[in-house]
Every structure is written in C-alpha cells, then in structure tokens.
Design goal:
Layout: H1 4-27, H2 31-64, H3 70-93, H4 97-129, H5 134-142
Helix pairs in contact: 1-2, 1-4, 2-3, 2-5, 3-4
Length: about 140
C-alpha cells in the first residue's frame, strides 16, 4: 500500500465493521458481547484518530502552510464523534439499547460524512502534497 487514501480508507472499513458488530450486539441485548465489540470499535477509532492527529494532519498542515484547512475540520469532527462515544458508553453501562442505538445512528451519519470528506478531499490532497513523504508517513502510522 503506497497511498494515504488506501491506507486510511481501508482502516475506515475496518472501523465500520467493528461499529456494525457493536450495534448488532446492542440491538440483540447481548450485553457481554456488546461490551467487547463496543470496546474494540472505540479502540479502533481512537487508533485511527491517533494516526491522523499525530502523523497525517501535522504533515498536511506543514505542507499546506495552514492549520485552518481540512485537517482542522476533521479534528473538530473527531471531537464530535468522541462526544457520541461517551454517550454510547453511558448507554452501554445502563444497558439502554435505545439510547445506545440513538447515539450510534447519529454517529453513523457523522462518520459517513466525515469519511467521505477524508476519502474524497483530504486523503487525495495529502497524497499529492506529501507524495515524497508517503512511505515515511505510512511507516509512522504503522508504529502507532
């Protein structure tokens, strides 16, 4: 794999699969499996965010000369998603499928919009602007 778009785009699919599994376990009220799958999903998302926030976004902002562009918007949306993670965690603690699934529905909409912006705008821009550094950046992301 030699592009940000492929590398992080594939990770979006991995996170999406974990998200669907967590939702299914909550919908089934299988709380022990819901706990495990929810934790796996949150861990995957935080790992994904860490790769972007600690490697990709700083490199992108350095190359673009601005910290007010697409990466800033993505950081803000990560914060919104983290708020939903917290609400889902509370619902899980109280074994409230309705609350969990209500928040996860909002999260799904936000993630779809967010991922589309990254995959269609930020990642292709990163691949162009950072082309000589892509192998180094992917290696850094691998080490997180």
């Amino acid at each position: 794999m030699n592009s940000v778009r492929d590398y992080l785009g594939d990770d979006h699919f991995r996170c999406d699969d974990l998200f669907a599994l967590a939702e299914q376990h909550v919908a089934d009220c299988d709380w022990s499996k819901a706990r495990v799958s929810h934790d796996a999903f949150i861990h995957a998302m935080e790992h994904h965010f860490a790769m972007e926030e600690s490697v990709l976004f700083p490199a992108f902002e350095e190359a673009s000369g601005s910290d007010m562009g697409p990466a800033a918007v993505m950081r803000h949306e990560h914060g919104q998603m983290r708020q939903l993670f917290a609400a889902m965690e509370e619902a899980l603690k109280h074994q409230s499928a309705d609350d969990y699934l209500g928040n996860s529905e909002t999260l799904l909409i936000l993630m779809r919009q967010h991922n589309a912006k990254e995959e269609q705008i930020l990642y292709p821009m990163s691949d162009r602007m950072l082309a000589p550094r892509i192998p180094e950046l992917l290696k850094q992301m691998d080490s997180i």
